[in-house]
UniProtKB/TrEMBL annotation:
InterPro entries: ARM-like, ARM-type_fold, PUM-HD, Pumilio_RNA-bd, Pumilio_RNA-bd_rpt. Belongs to the PUF3 family. CDD domains: Pumilio (cd07920). It comes from Lentinula raphanica. It comes from the Eukaryota. Residues 1-339 form the PUM-HD domain. It is found in: Cytoplasm. SUPFAM superfamilies: ARM repeat. Pumilio repeats lie at residues 21-56, 57-93, 94-129, 130-167, 201-236, 237-272, 273-314. GO terms for cellular component: cytoplasm. Keywords: Cytoplasm, Repeat, RNA-binding. Pfam families: PUF. One of its GO terms (biological process) is nuclear-transcribed mRNA catabolic process, deadenylation-dependent decay. This is Pumilio homology domain family member 3.
Amino acid sequence: MQSPLLQEFHADRMRNWELRDIFNHIVEFSGDQHGSRLIQHKLESASSEEKQKVYDEIVPHNVLQLTQDVFGNYVIQKLFEHGTQVHKTGLAAELEGHYFALSKQMYGCRVVQKAIEYILPEQQASIVRELEPHVMECIQDGNGNHVIQKIIERVSPERLGFVQTFRGNVQILATHTSGCRVLLRAFEYLPEPFTAPLIEELHVNTHMLIQNQYGNYVMQFVIEHGKPQDSSAVILQLRGHLLAMARHKYASNVCEKALKFADADTRRQLIDEILTPRPEGAVVLSMMKDQFANYVLQRAVVLAEADQREALINQIRPQLAILRRISTGYSKHLVSSEL
């Protein structure tokens, strides 16, 4: 049942409501869609006294409830964002012992992420310690993986001993819908002593990962952002297989990335593969007619040096008339190009 005050608020939302108007009803309003929005908005410019009053009504008895509530979680997030350091510390303390469960809960995981952003390093470490025994479970959870990503982004690397558990599991992570995101975040934020063994493990399965629905994103990252030797090791796996990889739904993305970030000599060798006829026919024509390879061919034309570009265009141009007659959605870019 709604209190008379909440009913009045719903009936007269045009009134300029202030936090002081709803004191002693903060928890009820936090769990209401429009009441929650009011509190969130007012907390951004509230006085210290007003923030303290909101905090006192929520802590300690209502923190866990509101953290998991569809509307209340936003109020807790705002307190982490705009409360005093004492408020942030107190909220985090109330959630201790519940971080694992909250990380897997739809609304709770958002509060945990916000807490990680705003609490002191000692309390960040407390969250890490609580999640450490469950880190692989969190990574493979639709909500929990976002918490692990936030920890990798925000917590000092020396506190992230759980990254050692990634070793031996890199292939599992790289081919998992959320595991690949966590792995990419690790590569992006952690120093080389953490990431080098993980990337080394990737090289064992490069050929498979290039063709994987999720692994291809990891391979693209290594090509673009990895050390030159790691990038080259991935690109090397495409040599001799460029046509097959270019025609593959996922590997074609890696081919495009390889053409863009390879050194000049390697790029030239890859494009030579496209230009060299095979017994079964011209590679260029095969790529032109393929829904994925045609994009790799377009990228090759753009990035090729002058002599190779001319050779590509000389092979493409005679086929354009045929493509115009059988034009499909994926070949329209080549058909409409001014080659």
